[in-house]
């Protein structure tokens, strides 16, 4: 899968978390393939620096940046509105941004911080951009997953509780939600030309993923990752290949790791659960009647 050198000229991709780490490397690889790339994160200074670096390395001016803070539903809505107002097609959406070890607190939206950064923000962004992705079909959604999903648990009555889960448990819960969301996207958009797949980067060296941990835990974690982890450059190439490989144009609802199809979570085939997740998530992020393209398409 990762051997493809397929070009992406004329395609537009959004990469969340694109100012550093895996997201930066993914955006760089997409730009090298000729794509127009929008990198998105919450820090405009880092975004501007990353944009300039990618433009210089790739010799492409088709790299831009746009601020988004997944911990704020208002910020996600502003990002989506600006994207829609620009009237630009969106061919590829890569929900790469995520975090571990965040404070155990609620956001301004009343949601668990880790759940919102890793799942609810991506759900809302994807939902709002789906009409654009459908209009641009064939288009692709790639969601960042993690092996922790296999130990995740979703209790819709308590998934935003504070003081109930440790940092690994809430990470696992958020990544399980991503897996089920991806499965439901596949079901709802069959034969539409919009595909949705998830990707597990395993563990990645030279990223700031552990910056939220206490110093001792951070140093031990980095030592472990340095021993077994993949270089972020390699992971960026893998994700970019998922976005470009023509053999994956009709592949959807799959889970990938190390450039191969991987074992997905067993609950992705539970359609009642994935449908419930979809409906509850819409309620949690407060999809309005105006935003609800499912309702509007019926009427």
UniProtKB/TrEMBL annotation:
- What keywords would UniProt list here? Oxidoreductase
Q: Which segments does the entry list as coiled coil?
A: none
In terms of InterPro entries, this protein maps to: NAD(P)-bd_dom_sf, SDR_fam
Pfam families documented for this protein: adh_short (PF00106)
Gene3D superfamilies for the chain: NAD(P)-binding Rossmann-like Domain (3.40.50.720)
Q: Which GO terms describe its molecular function?
A: oxidoreductase activity
This one is known as: Jg20155 protein
The species is: Pararge aegeria aegeria
């Amino acid at each position: 899968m990762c051997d493809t050198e397929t070009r992406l000229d004329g395609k537009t991709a959004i990469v969340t978390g694109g100012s550093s780490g895996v997201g930066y490397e993914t955006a760089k690889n997409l730009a090298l393939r000729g794509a127009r790339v929008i990198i998105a994160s919450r820090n405009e200074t880092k975004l501007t620096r990353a944009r300039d670096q990618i433009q210089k390395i790739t010799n492409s001016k088709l790299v831009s940046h746009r601020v988004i803070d997944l911990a704020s539903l208002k910020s996600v809505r502003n990002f989506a509105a600006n994207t829609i107002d620009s009237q630009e097609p969106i061919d590829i959406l890569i929900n790469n941004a995520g975090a571990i070890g965040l404070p155990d607190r609620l956001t301004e939206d009343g949601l668990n911080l880790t759940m919102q950064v890793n799942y609810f923000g991506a759900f809302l962004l994807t939902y709002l951009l789906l009409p654009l992705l459908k209009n641009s079909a064939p288009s692709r959604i790639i969601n960042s997953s993690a092996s922790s999903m296999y130990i995740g648990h979703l209790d819709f009555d308590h998934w935003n509780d504070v003081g109930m889960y440790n940092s690994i448990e809430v990470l696992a819960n958020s990544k399980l939600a991503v897996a089920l969301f991806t499965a439901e996207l596949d079901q709802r958009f069959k034969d539409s030309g919009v595909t949705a797949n998830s990707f597990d980067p395993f563990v990645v060296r030279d990223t700031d993923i552990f910056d939220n941990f206490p110093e001792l835990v951070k140093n031990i974690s980095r030592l472990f990752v340095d021993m077994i982890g993949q270089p972020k450059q390699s992971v960026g190439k893998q994700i970019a290949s998922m976005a470009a490989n023509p053999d994956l144009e009709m592949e959807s609802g799959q889970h990938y790791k190390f450039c191969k199809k991987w074992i997905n979570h067993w609950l992705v085939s539970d359609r009642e659960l994935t449908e419930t997740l979809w409906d509850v998530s819409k309620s949690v992020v407060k999809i309005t009647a105006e935003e609800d393209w499912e309702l509007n398409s019926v009427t």
